[in-house]
Specification:
The complex is a heterodimer of chains A (about 350) and B (about 270). Chain A contains 17 helices and 10 strands. With about 350 residues, chain A is of the alpha/beta class. Chain A folds into 2 domains: about 200 residues, 3-Layer(aba) Sandwich (D-Maltodextrin-Binding Protein, domain 2); about 140 residues, Periplasmic binding protein-like II (D-Maltodextrin-Binding Protein, domain 2), CATH 3.40.190.10. Chain B is about 80% helix and about 0% strand. The chains are: A alpha/beta (about 350), B mainly alpha (about 270). At the A-B interface, helix 4, strand 6 and helix 17 of A face helix 3 and helix 11 of B.
Chain lengths: ~350, ~270
């Protein structure tokens, strides 16, 4: 907690002195500082991945958590003395970090576990850590029989009358619009941004709420405020677990991920590399979905036998589910075209 | 006296002047002097639309707060002491609940399956639920609720100091209650009106959580563009430039207002 509070304050540029004192301490070779987003998600990782990795490698893993690590990563690296080693953040941020020299380039010869993962699951700067999916979820009260099962259905207000919600963000929403317009899930990139916004204009009058937080998307569906919504699979399955009359389909879901990357000039670089390799070990990875509704990033996790078949069917990255979905291209979203599309969003929302 | 004020001045310097100054500096300096952040605000429509909407909401909330707050403050100022305390306690009570909790409470009241729509449907006033939230209406209602005490308290403080003999003098000269109110009480309460309105207006300009949660994504107030710019442009300057423009705009408005209303005379009257 000492470290956690120190880095947040340092981020605000208030107590740089504390930071200086801490980073002046001799860095021990057998420890790292790992940062994730906190909450139930970080607790699940601690049990499934962090504690077992620390034990196996004989290292100490200090943890910190922050909802959005990106600004802190920037200011830490800019200070020249980062205190964090490994960060778990949205894959796009790892890629941007790589481009801007904030993240170490990875040597996959030292990362045998990562080297066997599919190419699309890694970059020169990052290794995918876990998967979640933006899926089409619906009320079973409103649709007891024929439920919407594709983005074309979501856009079809005659066949499926009802109130709708989408995320107030272009990520996954533009992809869904293009799939509704007939683009195949594996032919999305580079996104035809004009076409996607045109298609979104079409559904806009029927969108009751543009949600901003995951909790909000679940609340809207649970309270009957909307009848169908694009939401993260974990939020919907949590509602289903509580007995809510809701459902979702992985069909045309947009598979998203967070990745591990190492800060440029990390104080414990060598140990950090060892940890990143260990974190995507098939067995640790297979343990993650036993504690939270996220899918393992290493497909070999599904060969370990750790995850029971009925659980496999619920996971976004399980081979059968992954094949129905679109894999988000973070490389495209962090390209100039992707950034331009992101900037266009507010203008679309205001009109 | 100055020596006693020194610690407070130091705190203000450290916690307000320096950070704000630093942010303002960032808006024009990023790897060299640049006006790119201001050029963007000038050239992109989204900023104008958000500024317009924000000021629109701020004016609306201020007027409604005045309309609702004036009678409450008046009632508290003329009521016996015991009742005045009860009225003021009721006004201040919501302060003890966080803004976030209150936003969710409004959601529970206003949404389609919320309390208000359910009741209205049951007593047959409406067939289809009204769209009370996820729009500007819901944002204004919740903002008004949060800011009402900021209107009532300055009004009450001013009204309490109005000498009652003035009204009696007016009455003894033959003026009815309506005339004494309009000619004597109302003008003397104007400093409170001005102070309360200023507080509510300025605070509304910076509202973030309420429009974010109750605006349905369409009510994009200026503070939301500030946070969006931090995400989108990766530098504080892109965000703080929006804040600087807001600050200057508010300053200009007050300057303009002060040309028409003698602020110092109204506020500092002896």
């Amino acid at each position: 907690m000492m470290i956690a509070s120190c880095c947040r304050r340092a981020l605000l540029g208030v107590s740089l002195g504390v930071l200086a004192t801490l980073s002046a301490l001799p860095a021990s070779a057998d420890q790292i500082t790992f940062v994730s987003q906190g909450g139930a998600y970080q607790k699940a990782q601690t049990v499934a991945i962090l504690d077992p990795s620390a034990k196996k490698l004989g290292i100490t893993i200090n943890q910190d958590s922050i909802p959005d690590a990106w600004p802190a990563v920037k200011s830490q690296v800019a200070s020249g003395k980062p205190t964090w080693d490994v960060v778990d953040m949205p894959t796009g941020n790892c890629l941007r970090g790589g481009e801007q020299g904030l993240v170490e380039k990875l040597d996959f010869a030292k990362l045998p576990n990562a080297a066997t993962m599919p190419e699309a699951y890694r970059s020169a700067y990052s290794v995918t850590y876990e998967f979640y999916s933006s899926v089409l979820a619906f009320s079973r009260k409103k649709f007891p029989d024929a439920a919407p099962s594709s983005w074309a259905d979501f856009w079809d207000v005659k066949k499926f009358p009802g109130r709708r919600a989408l995320r107030n963000h272009p990520f996954a929403t533009l992809e869904a619009a293009l799939m509704a317009d007939g683009v195949a899930p594996d032919k999305l990139y580079p996104l035809d941004v004009d076409r996607a916004f045109r298609k979104l204009e079409e559904i806009k009058p029927s969108i009751t709420v543009w949600w901003t937080s995951g909790a909000q998307s679940a609340q809207l569906l649970n309270d009957g405020e909307v009848d169908m919504v694009m939401a993260w699979n974990g939020r919907v399955s949590a509602l289903m677990g509580e007995g809510a009359k809701v459902g979702f389909t992985f069909n045309q879901g947009i598979l998203q991920s967070t990745s591990l990357c190492i800060l440029k000039g990390a104080p414990n670089l060598a140990t950090a590399v060892r940890f990143v390799n260990e974190a995507v070990d098939p067995v640790h990875q297979a343990n993650l979905p036993l504690h939270i509704d996220y899918g393992p990033a290493n497909p070999k996790a599904f060969d370990t036998g750790v995850i029971k078949p009925e659980r496999v069917a619920q996971l976004p990255s399980a081979p059968d589910n992954a094949s129905k979905q679109a894999l988000m291209s973070y490389a495209w979203w962090s390209s100039p075209a992707g950034e331009a599309a992101e900037k266009r969003w507010v203008s679309f929302m205001q009109k | 006296m100055l020596a006693l004020a020194l610690p407070a001045l130091l705190v203000i310097l450290l916690l307000v002047v320096l950070p704000v100054g630093w942010l303002a500096w960032q808006s024009v300096y990023h790897d060299g002097f640049t006006l790119a952040n201001y050029r963007r605000i000038w050239s992109e429509d989204i900023y104008w639309r958000s500024f317009a909407l924000t000021f629109e909401i701020a004016v609306l909330v201020t007027l409604l707060a005045l309309l609702l707050g004036y009678p409450i403050a008046y009632a508290a100022s003329v009521a016996p002491k015991r009742w005045a305390i009860v009225i003021l306690a009721l006004v201040v009570l919501p302060f003890w609940t966080s803004v976030l909790v209150r936003a969710y409470a409004w959601l529970a009241l206003l949404q389609r399956t919320g309390v208000i729509n359910q009741v209205l449907r049951q007593i047959g006033v409406i067939d289809e639920p009204l769209a009370l939230v996820h729009n500007t209406f819901g944002t204004v209602v919740a903002t008004l609720h949060i800011l009402l005490p900021f209107m009532v308290l300055p009004l009450y403080a001013t009204m309490q100091q109005i000498p009652r003999d003035l009204m009696q003098a007016g009455a003894s000269l033959g003026a009815g209650p309506t005339l004494t109110f309009w000619r004597i009480f109302l003008p003397l309460s104007l400093p409170g009106v001005l102070a309360g309105s200023t507080l509510v207006f300025v605070l509304t300009l910076g509202f973030y959580i309420t429009p974010e949660l109750l605006g349905g994504g369409r009510t994009i107030m200026i503070s939301m563009l500030v946070s969006r710019n931090v995400e989108l442009y990766d530098q504080w300057g892109a965000a703080s430039a929006v804040g600087v423009v807001l600050l200057v705009a508010v300053g200009l408005i007050f300057f303009a207002v002060s040309r028409f209303i003698p602020l110092d005379r109204v506020l500092g009257q002896k």
